[in-house]
């Protein structure tokens, strides 16, 4: 007998696939096993037992056609035989004899086979084989989507991820923390939400309902008392699961091959069910116990008509009715499956009940094959989809990242990264982390926090612990902030620096920092920035004194003009974009420092001459060629610093002599060839940079600059220095390298305060020993070739090397 286990390969896949079998698939599988047993049992009987037994029919002879021999045979056969005589061995046995046919065993076998093939109905012959074939087709249809390459790969991947998500310690922890909240905590949170139903959010620029970030401080800040419940290895495994789920969702939601495959195999089973019911109902009556057989084999057997007994007809008849019942139940189940497939929207799946039960509001709904598999999972056990949903939640992922961050970045490790920044504040730089560690807020001495390339930063209310925090830098970070944290920053933050790639990265809450004094914006802004809604709110920054915009604006934003009444310094670094329409500058009457860098300016803007409070002007990296307008600077009585470096200026007009208040003047990196003597009538100059030009001669009037402390003519074509230069006895820095000088005057010894001297790149052959009189000059401050330094007397060299 054929064991049923041989057919298991047609119905079984991996045991884990059972989670994708709803109750009707399991039920039809059992029905298939029952039908398979009917088929196997019938086939076994066909093989093991005689199929049909036939006997020749007796025909009454007529008077015209009967022969003597036939009559004698008939008489002999019909004449009763005398009863057997008792024998000594078997005295009571009586021998029974029937009708004589004179057929041997081989003839009977031949007759049985001929009648089986010719007279028996095909349905009666092949019924068990039909049952077996139909059942195998049902089994294949039920499990084809588990074996088809295009669908089985997705199913295997899904089952693998599902099992890991179900067993992950992070799933258990995330759900237990939600379910473990007592009713009092929930009521308190509801009351808090009713009092304040808005918090500030990042890139969208508007207030966001607090329910979209439900209980952010409670959920987002990891409790240290439970931080050790998930070790580092488990945390990394959970992190990897989040990434797998993201990629799998992206891949599976693109198509609906699983849904289509399941629908098609169900439709095929229904069609097959209808066919089986139709022809079986019509042919089941053909299974009869007695069969008349008329075959022309009289010349071999002497008979033509036979009466046959189908030995398994009675059993096959009962089996066929039983089989029809099983098929009917199977078909009705398939019809219900079709109803379930088409009545419900199985290509969309909503986690609404999970969101309500767990309180994790950001679990997204899914679609297509992903949704279909989750619907199938729900028929097995809804707990699977509930635990799986944890790995679809961004809040849950961020919470896990937060836990891993806190374990990795301990307070001691963070303190090792502390440094002093350019503003002389104690700063903590954090670069390319997955989030902001909660342990940062335990470093109470922190004054400046710098975050670079950190996505989804959440600033919690615990930032209020940083009493000394005054400066915050956000470089390419997307930031959300709790309302309590925003209140703290409004009162304490003095400096904010934001570097961004997209305007949506600008935090909208920065416009409410009423005590902010310095704002630095670095990133690409639209040329139509003055019409941008978000920047109009700069007017609320009542304490803003310094504003720096490094971008590509085409005009001064109107929002900047709105804060002009208290703005003291403005910097525009325009990255080569031409800055036009500068008339708004006239309204900045209190401006003391102005930087217009790389703005493609061809002339000095006339609006600048109206800034009577201006003290410093920097027009670096523009396209200035002529500066005749410089005469108008005489009205700016407070102007002390003028930087016209990195331009294309060819000459300095004589009007510069009228700028008598100048103390710092930078003309480096231009194309100046001649220095006018009138330049040195600005006798208050302390800093004069003329490096990287084409100057050949230094007028002796340079000696007038008795306040000069810094003088640079590096990289020019100067061949000699006037002795009057050494009358500038306050000179501390002298840069004359990369010229054509051949002699350094001994009068350099008059510069007693000289601490930095660059003479490298000239034609000197010897250095004057009078350099030893420059007591403040040390070897580190003397930039010269080593061979030339050796020309100094040994005592001078030792003096310079001494600390």
Automatic annotation (TrEMBL):
GO terms for biological process: cyclic-GMP-AMP transmembrane import across plasma membrane; fat cell differentiation; protein hexamerization. It is found in: Cell membrane; Endoplasmic reticulum membrane. The chain crosses the membrane at residues 30-48, 126-146, 257-279, 321-342. PROSITE patterns: LRR (PS51450). The keyword Membrane applies. It is a multi-pass membrane protein. GO terms for cellular component: endoplasmic reticulum membrane; monoatomic ion channel complex; plasma membrane. GO terms for molecular function: volume-sensitive anion channel activity. It holds the Pfam family LRR_8. This is Volume-regulated anion channel subunit LRRC8C. It comes from Ailuropoda melanoleuca.
